[in-house]
Amino acid sequence: MATQDGFYLENDSGILHRGLKCAGVITPPQNVTDQQSTFDVIVVGAGYTGLTAGRDLCISGFKVLLLEARDRIGGRTYTVDVGGHLYEMGGTWVHWNQPHVYREMSRYRQASLSTSHIESGAGLNYHSTVLEGKAGKMDPETAHKLAEKAFRMLCDVDGKLGRRVIPYPHDPHYSPEAKQWETMSVAQRLEQIRADLTGEEVSLLKSSLSSICGADMDNAGFFDVLRWWALGGYSMDGVYETGDQFKIAAGQSSFARCFFDEALRTRNLTYAFKTTITSIQDLKNRVVVNGKWTAGRVICTVPLNVLHKVNFEPALSPNKTAVANINQGAKFHLEVSGPALRSWSGAAWPVKRQCHGAGDGLTPDGNTHLVFFGSNQDFSSPELDGRDFVADCKDLHEMDVKKTIWHNWSKDPFAEGAWCMFAPDSSFKHLEALQQRAGNVLFANSDWAVGWRGFIDGAIERGALAAYDVSFDLRASNIESKI
């Protein structure tokens, strides 16, 4: 089945395809009937947070209604099949050091991984650069050493590689010293270390950081970069191994189906896809969604940037809408002719549309799959976006592009942004408020995870916690009603 999401440009013919084959599409799109209106729990959103919460509650015996605006599961994560090759359109990478996701991978026997780093030494094994307008080329080891030195200096805020400031990565606010770094932007931290780095080192570092922050380092909070550093084991290699290397071989959509299918097998799951949520009313003794469905509790997993599109009664606390996900990063897949670029990588600064790219294996046609990251902020229309992005990629290295495949998360009406990055002075002020419930409505999303925020692991973290709290609530209510 094809989802309504995603774009595929045939570069030779110029034909643009909208909507791509995806294992996450749910058919029929709903099994709820007109006679069904009351449930124990309503879960809004079928990303990994909603899937985890819904599954856990169904297993516990609660009647759950899962509502989703898209035609598929996965939220900001889904896999498409183009020409027999799998492309991850959103959240992709997993690791055994991500505790929540790896537990689920083991549970569903989905621990078989693939990696983009097995081609080292094959083909054109070098790193291309366009730094401050000057094109260059260096061997990967040199590029790695330059970037590693700069990244380490950036994050060594305490002479102990950040271990004193964030000693417990899943409790990032633990140390009082963390606060001073939380108010700083990435650009401000770069200014502090600039004098100790060469221009080449600064540019390579900025390219790497742009792929993490979505290019806007003036508004990106340095603390979120420092958190990634700590979660990755306080090294650049660890950051990229845990967050940019290993994929589930069967694809994220196949993994997400495991959650959905298990919930469905309990016969406690009712669902409605292609259903946009417009209102959530907490009437104290029940919660009403879209004026139609009623439950004792609602778990809202709507992403941070589109939370304002839902009309809540009573209105949400201002703290829940005072912070945004500032990441407007772009992710593009290119299939380029031949196998030569499979171990190639490249970096650019300043960013126009792309900032970093690398080989990610071969397609069934024997061509190279390249993955590029950049910025969505200058994009205008799908017809132009693919061509413009490819033009920037060709500034790094000449390539014969056959296919361009992408999803514009910035213009996605149900996301309006990519993986979550906070602006400075947001985490200490707003994270706890984002996590707090409002009466019978609980809020859960990877955008406010305490560990791997913005990752699949963070989504599962929040979904499991919300399900636990709701289960405790409803069982306690049942006990009280029988006394």
UniProtKB/TrEMBL annotation:
Q: What are the recorded GO MF terms, alphabetically?
A: monoamine oxidase activity
Q: What class of enzyme is it?
A: oxidoreductase
Which metal ions or organic cofactors does this protein require, according to UniProt?
FAD
| Residues the entry annotates as binding FAD | T49, E68, A69
Q: Which reaction does it catalyse?
A: a secondary aliphatic amine + O2 + H2O = a primary amine + an aldehyde + H2O2
Coiled-coil intervals: none
Keywords (A to Z) from UniProt = FAD, Flavoprotein, Oxidoreductase
Listed binding positions for substrate are F373
Q: Which domain of life is it from?
A: Eukaryota
Quote the EC number.
1.4.3.-
* TM helices/strands, residue ranges: none
Q: Which residues form the Amine oxidase domain?
A: 49-470
Per its UniProt record, what Gene3D superfamilies does this chain match? Answer: 3.90.660.10, FAD/NAD(P)-binding domain
Q: Please give the family membership noted in the entry.
A: Belongs to the flavin monoamine oxidase family.
Protein name, as recorded: Amine oxidase
Name the species this protein comes from.
Answer: Aspergillus versicolor CBS 583.65
